[in-house]
Amino acid sequence: MDPEARALLESFVAAYRPYVQGRLTEAGWPEPGEALSAGEAWLRSELGALLSVPFAEQARSPLEILQEAMSFPTDALERMGVAPVDRDSAAEAALPGDRFDLAPASSQVLGEEAWRAHITWGAAKAVAHRRGPSAVLVTRNLLDASKVGEAADRAGYDLTVSARVQTLERRFAVGFVDLEHPDADHAIRSLVGVCGRVVAYGPHVDDVGMVRARSLGAAEAVPRSRFFTDPAAWLPALV
């Protein structure tokens, strides 16, 4: 399971019980015994099975599975004699089994961590379904990642952003390395073998870092001000 899928799995499972408990408290309903533990276990198993297969083989979304996990507290509440709530026709048609209106319509209500993990996983899935040439950026700076990502989209490239230096087996047309990353040297060495071209960027005062980047195999090492004038300029033009 890739890191994005693992983060999504763990954050959804962690958010399940607090979310349901919050809904129960809000409605004034009792906690349904062991139903939450059973729901957590089922959610972990079903999400794990879904996220362990390639994107193309994932017939359902993670949010759909989390919504289905609400059947455990729903059935328990019904056994306890709690009356189902009135729902509008659209909600009943979309989720007919959600008799107590427990199922979240969005991952945002699960908390910041689950929501961000869902977005990150969704972005990874979108990239996997695209067919443009690929580039990779090693940085921990989210603003840098956003700017390079927008430039890559405009240029017709698929961008992979990594905050950690990992062994990369696939090939990339271009690799970008933020010299302020603590493992920048290792990133350059790793990318030289799997990228057609490696470009490093860093603070304009870091002359030593730029010289070192070139000595490690980077084709270019430039001040970040120059790099971010137009990040797309560092991507080979597509014919």
SSE map:
Elements: H1 3-27, H2 35-51, H3 62-68, H4 71-79, H5 89-94, H6 112-129, E1 134-138, H7 142-155, E2 158-162, E3 174-178, H8 184-192, E4 198-202, H9 207-215, E5 220-223, H10 224-227
Parallel strand pairs: 1-2, 1-3, 3-4, 4-5
Helix pairs in contact: 1-2, 1-6, 2-4
What are the salient characteristics of this protein?
alpha/beta; five-stranded parallel β-sheet; 10 helices
Q: Describe it for me?
A:
The chain is an alpha/beta fold and 239 residues long. It has 2 domains: 3-123, no CATH class; 131-234, Rossmann fold (3-Layer(aba) Sandwich). The protein has helices at residues 3-27, 35-51, 62-68, 71-79, 89-94, 112-129, 142-155, 184-192, 207-215, 224-227, and strands spanning 134-138, 158-162, 174-178, 198-202, 220-223. A 5-stranded parallel sheet has the order 2-1-3-4-5, with helices on both faces. Helix 8 links the parallel strand 3 (174-178) and strand 4 (198-202).
How many domains, as an integer?
A: 2
Shape: elongated
User: Low-confidence spans: pLDDT under 50, at least 5 residues?
Assistant: none
| SSE string | HHHHHHEHEEHEHEH
Give the strand line-up of the largest sheet: 2-1-3-4-5
Q: Strand-residue fraction? A: 5-15%
Distance between the termini: 35 Å
The count of DSSP E runs of length 2 or more, i.e. the number of strands, is: 5
Largest sheet properties = 5 strands, parallel
Q: How large is the radius of gyration? A: 23 Å
The number of helical runs is 10
Q: What value does the average pLDDT take?
A: 88
Quaternary status: single chain
Structural class: alpha/beta
Helix percent band: 40-55%
